[in-house]
Design goal:
Elements (H helix, E strand, L loop, with lengths): L21 E4 L3 E13 L2 E10 L4 E6 L3 H4 L2 E2 L3 H11 L10 H14 L2 H11 L8 E2 H21 L4 H12 L10 E2 L2 H7 L1
Helix pairs in contact: 2-4, 3-4, 3-5, 4-5, 5-6
């Protein structure tokens, strides 16, 4: 008779959050853990982390036991953020995919909340000179990725979000004379107009 197979639990890192701590929720960015409360849902008591996203005017409740699965994480260290910004200075990635697929990949990177993936989007979509133009959709993705990076940078360096965005762009060497409102027409928009 064969021996029953024992299930092996993979060790997982225990996330330890405290009220008042800033955390990153992948699809929303940086929020502040307000409290941990107990709620009764369908007859079961569940501990919920209450996270306030002041900038989005939103409060999110995440079950404590699902925090790691949801991607909730503490802020990056200053060193990790510096590494992400340094990677955003690099050469843009290969752009052989059609725009719709690249845009979907950029969207996925933004929603990951990972500073290195955000830096990849910023790196690929940033304008290198004042003469460079950007499509409307590329500009929106760039600004969202930059804002997510800036949220974390702002908390780490105790500054406001606009100052953090400006500082990141200064570090990257984005020319100040760039008019972010100067955009090219998206190829998709042209096709729809015909």
């Amino acid at each position: 008779m064969a021996k029953p197979i024992k299930s092996v639990k993979m060790p997982s890192k225990k996330l330890d959050f405290k009220a008042g701590q800033y955390v990153v929720y992948p699809t929303q960015g940086v929020g502040k853990l307000v409290r941990v409360e107990e709620q009764t849902i369908a007859g079961q008591k569940i501990k919920m982390m209450v996270i306030d996203f002041e900038r989005n005017h939103m409060t999110l409740r995440v079950p404590l036991e699902r925090a790691e699965i949801s991607g909730l994480r503490p802020l990056s260290s200053t060193k990790q953020m510096d590494e992400a910004i340094a990677s955003a200075k690099g050469k843009a990635g290969v752009k052989r995919m059609i725009w719709a697929r690249r845009a979907a990949q950029y969207e996925e990177n933004i929603n990951s909340g990972d500073p290195m993936k955000l830096a990849e989007v910023v790196r690929d979509l940033q304008r290198r000179s004042a003469a460079d133009t950007m499509t409307f959709s590329a500009r929106q993705l760039y600004l969202r990725a930059l804002e997510r990076m800036a949220q974390e940078f702002a908390v780490l360096h105790k500054m406001d979000l606009d100052a953090a965005s400006d500082k990141i762009e200064d570090i990257l060497g984005i020319p100040k004379e760039i008019d972010l409102n100067a955009v090219e027409v998206d190829e998709e928009d042209i096709e729809e107009d015909n």
